[in-house]
Amino acid sequence: MKKALVMGASGGIGFAIVSELAARGIQVVAFARGKEKLQALFENYPNVSIFPGDVFNEEHVRKASDGIDVMFHAISFPYQEWEETHIQCIHTIINVAQTQQAKIALVDNIYAYGRQSSIVTEETIKEPHTKKGKIRLAMENELKASSVPSLIVHMPDLYGPNAENTILNETLKSVISNKKANFVGHMHVAREFLYTFDGAKAIVELALRSDTYNQNWNVPAVHPITGEQLVEIIRDITGYKKKVRTVSNAMIGILALFSPFMKEMKEMMYLTEEPVILNGAKYESVIGTLPQTSYQEGLQQTLLWLKKRR
After folding, report:
1. What is the pLDDT of residues 73-87, one digit of tens each?
2. CA–CA separation, 130 and 268 (whole Å)
3. Given Cys at both, which of 7, 9, 160, 171 links 30, Cβ 3.0 to 4.6 Å?
């Protein structure tokens, strides 16, 4: 890979993927809607050019894709817009990739797996029971039905520098402001939170190889962790002493009566009580040791980022 396009480059995982590609000396086109944020993030990055554009404008995507080898799809949309956006977006990316003879690396989540009673491998049957899980599976099927070589990389909940639209960020930004913080989900249930730069290292490593395409890959976090344990680490790093409130499924249900976003959030709250835990054995058998930053280090770097941007 000599040149790559990262779509959704101004988001948390997109930012990490651009950073990882640039660090490896690969030419990167950072694509997102907002010019100012792209400039702020990447103005001092070697090997990175920015391209502000609309993913639903195929001509924008085509121009941004000139000469690229791999298109990294790291675009996120607000929950309430998923039905109108995600399938249209994947169609545009597939069309452009076919024209450019490029490959696609999709950053996927765990929603398509649905409810699972044990740790999931790439062979686990996907039976999503939620609307958003069915949309993610439809995206996967669109890629597999196309002629474009693709990677589908499943990652759990993310956190890290610039990862603003994440559940854990809601907790961390209150900690930095020394305000009473919220934690979404049961404090005693162990879930996975993947540091974005670990996810980026893994997907770039997969994208650089020729024997990894047209497959699914799981990239788990360093280990599952409870909210209680996370808060303990955060307090150790920051000295934060205020109470952390639990935002329960029932509370989200009440808010869902008044908020379209919370109505969509309610559907996914089962994951805070019945977490999907990923098995990364396939990656380790083919590629090697998974990138695994400790929660202590990952949270320290994330909090430092937030503090600098206050």
Report:
1. 999 998 889 999 999
2. 8
3. 9
